[in-house]
Amino acid sequence: MMARPALPKYTVPSLTVEDGAKVAAILQERLNALNDLQLTLKHIHWNVTGPHFIAVHEMIDPQVDQVREMVDAIAERIATLGVAPVGTPGALVKARSWDDYAIGRAGAIEHLGALNEVYVGVISDHRKAAEETEELDTVTNDLLVGHLHELELFHWFVRAHLESAGGALSTAGADGEKKAAKAAKAGAHG
């Protein structure tokens, strides 16, 4: 059983310290996920190969920059709620519920297939966090909903590379990053 975190000494007006701590805990999970996402995006940026290299390489950097801004906004919101945000790599690895990104040096379409899976997870969890904060704290909820707009846009950019003219995704039904990468590669050559 996890130890209950200490309550903050203060939080924002109109929230109890208990609710402030609850919102901060939800945000800490999002901070971990977005820190991981920005590192994963940079990893892809460095390891993408093949004929679509430059398009994907250049598409990823603006996503990295935007996700870094999201990380900063979430960390600052946690601090505003009276809790210390934790952004160290060790804490992220210890707290995360997902595995490391599974693809090393690979073709652009393989990385995009795997990245599709990453975005599905991040966006699904971000939506859940937005739902959890909707009644608790409208400011935090608004922050998360704004992030969802950007994350879903980036996801569309990725999916556009995986989509057929008929609207089918080459990664449909793939379970996990490695299988999605393989399906994307097969779909590109099939």
Automatic annotation (TrEMBL):
Membrane spanning residue stretches: none
* InterPro entries named among the record's database cross-references: DPS_DNA-bd, DPS_DNA-bd_CS, Ferritin-like, Ferritin-like_SF, Ferritin_DPS_dom
Ferritin/DPS domain span: 25-163
Q: Which GO terms describe its molecular function?
A: ferric iron binding; oxidoreductase activity, acting on metal ions
What protein family is recorded?
Belongs to the Dps family.
Its recorded name reads: DNA starvation/stationary phase protection protein
Q: Which organism is it from?
A: Cellulomonas denverensis
